[in-house]
Design a protein that fits this description.
The protein has about 300 residues and is of the alpha+beta class. It has one domain: oxygen-dependent coproporphyrinogen oxidase (3-Layer(aba) Sandwich). Helix content is about 30%, strand content about 20%. It is built from nine helices and eight strands. Strands 1, 2, 3, 4, 5, 6, 7 and 8 form an eight-stranded antiparallel sheet that branches. β4 and β5 form a beta hairpin. α3 runs parallel beside α6, α5 packs antiparallel against α6 and α8 crosses α9. The chain starts with a helix and ends in a 14-residue tail after the last helix.
């Protein structure tokens, strides 16, 4: 997902080089014990103890859904130095500028070939949960699920949860009735995407949960977005299952989707500001949009 708003708000951070770490593989049930697994982005306290890990319940909700689906962790899909990065505090009593980012990949055999997720903890300045679900290549009509939840400071919130057809909205064929019903249930998430912040919205569906909040943002995130998110993800899983399989290969569509988003995603600017261009380039091309290099063109879907 891409938007000029978040890019503008992410300026001003310094760069650093994350350490390379090696880790043993952990099962999903072990991953759920987040307080005992420092490398997993499931921390119980922010790098700034005065800040709230606002989107951690969303990560935990998604993990529990994956566990029910029989998900398998695929740590080999994340380069070791891209799994976990930490930017230290200035001092013991000054948390300003401290940050950490953790990422992981799972597979649900036969249904989802890749479910990636990332939590970025920047203390009071920034909290982000991002995830993308890719159906298996033999499900060409199945949508991808994009999750982008951001908090900038105390009063700016941008939240998107969307089942996105990999060939673009004009080629959407899946049943949307359950997703439509969830959106209608939560008026606070029926916002309209502005062309001011999104230069091209061809992958956005009409079933998108979209909220831009201000002073009451934290309350809306916890009381409206969280229950809507859980219902939406579970409904999305059912949508993908109902799409069924076929002999048509979805890999070219997903490669074009990745290339299209790799060109536009403002996360590159965020990670460059914290980690430097070399790390950010690798994170974008090898982790966030790993098939972008396979696109036959520039990622534009008609």
């Amino acid at each position: 997902m891409r938007h000029a708003l978040s890019a503008a708000l992410l300026a001003g951070a310094s760069s650093w080089t994350p350490a390379v770490r090696s880790h043993r593989k952990l099962g999903l049930r072990r991953a759920l014990a987040v307080e005992r697994d420092a490398r997993w982005p499931g921390w119980t306290e922010s790098v700034d103890p005065t800040a709230k890990l606002l989107y951690m319940p969303f990560l935990e909700t998604q993990l529990k859904i994956l566990e029910k689906l029989g998900a398998i962790e695929r740590p080999e899909e994340v380069r070791p130095d891209l799994r976990l990065g930490e930017r230290p505090r200035r001092s013991d009593d000054d948390a300003k500028g401290a940050a950490r980012v953790g990422s992981r990949v799972f597979e649900v055999p036969g249904v989802f070939r890749r479910v990636r997720m990332t939590y970025f903890d920047g203390g009071q300045s920034l909290q982000v949960f991002n995830s993308l679900w890719y159906p298996t290549f033999n499900r060409p009509d199945a949508p991808l699920l994009g999750v982008d939840l951001l908090r900038f400071g105390p009063k700016k919130f941008l939240c998107i949860v969307d089942a996105q057809p990999p060939q673009g909205r004009s080629h959407m064929t899946h049943d949307t009735s359950t997703l439509d019903a969830i959106k209608r249930k939560y008026p606070a998430l029926e916002g309209e995407v502005s062309s001011r912040y999104y230069d091209d919205n061809r992958f956005f569906s009409k079933q998108m949960l979209y909220g831009r909040f201000g002073d009451d943002g934290e309350k809306l995130v916890e009381e409206a977005l969280l229950p809507a998110f859980g219902a939406y993800v579970e409904a999305y899983v059912d949508v993908v299952a109902r799409c069924g399989t076929s002999g048509k290969d979805a890999r070219p569509f997903q490669a074009d989707y990745d290339a299209f988003n790799a060109e536009r995603d403002p996360a590159h600017g965020l990670f460059t500001s914290y980690f430097g261009a070399e790390w950010s380039d690798a994170y974008l091309s090898e982790f966030l949009f790993a098939l972008s290099h396979e696109s036959a063109g520039d990622g534009v879907v008609a």
